[in-house]
Amino acid sequence: MSLKGKQIGVAFTGSFCTYKQVFTELQKLVDEGAVVQTIFSDASQTLDSRFGKAEDFIRKAEEMTGMKPMMTIPEAEPIGPKSLLDILVIFPCTGNTIAKLANGITDTPVLMAAKAHLRNNKPLLISISTNDALGMNMKNIGLLLNAKNVYFIPFGQDNPEKKPNSMIAHTELLIPSLEAALEGRQYQPIIL
Q1: What residues of the chain score a pLDDT lower than 70?
Q2: How large is the greatest C-alpha to C-alpha distance in the chain, in angstroms?
């Protein structure tokens, strides 16, 4: 499947340690000819970390995609009624965002984008990055695994010795996972 011309939303949440890989994959989407609209959660647009400054990530996303990122709930809301996207990927998706999404909470631009997008029966792809995937958040991941039109980039434990509950998506599988989700199927195997 070609991604050329596909309207792809890429929603950033606060798992800053994954941003280097996320931007590598974002560039691949742009190179494939996809039209990429980024969305930044409140945390991702305001918090600086040892991995970089929020304003630099926002600037980089705009430079790569040629589109101004969505930064507010009102900016993200039209994704639904105007059917702006073919697919939305939350890339990366923190445990906090997973929990809120699984429980119907819409209090950030990313969660509004997801809610608005899902109302159109279009695919939402999740790239998990959470230290509590095998702990308190497992129930939320389980709920989302069974949710209509919700798909996952395959994921696995990233550091079982030091962080036994932590799991992270294999971001290098973004494009095949997107292609599968656009065809209405989960890319397999889901746990690597």
Answers
A1: none
A2: 46
Give the E-state strand segments of the chain in sequence order. Answer: 7-12, 35-40, 87-93, 124-130, 150-152, 155-157, 167-169
Q: Which helix (H) or strand (E) holds 143?
A: helix 138-145
Decide if 110 contacts 12 (C-beta within 8 A): yes
**Rounded-to-integer distance, Cα 111 and Cα 92, Å:** 13
Nearest to 81 by CA among 116, 111, 35: 116
Query: What CA–CA distance (Å, rounded) separates 173 from 39?
Result: 20
Pick the closest to residue 150 from 166, 128, 175 (CA basis).
Answer: 128
Predicted confidence (pLDDT) per residue in 113-122, tens digit = 999 999 999 9
Where is 53: in which H helix or E strand? none
What contacts 57, CB < 8 A, 6 or more positions away? 12, 19, 23, 40, 44
Regarding beta strands 35-40 and 7-12, do their DSSP bridges make them parallel or antiparallel, or are they unpaired?
parallel
This prediction's pTM: 0.96
3-class SS at 46?
helix
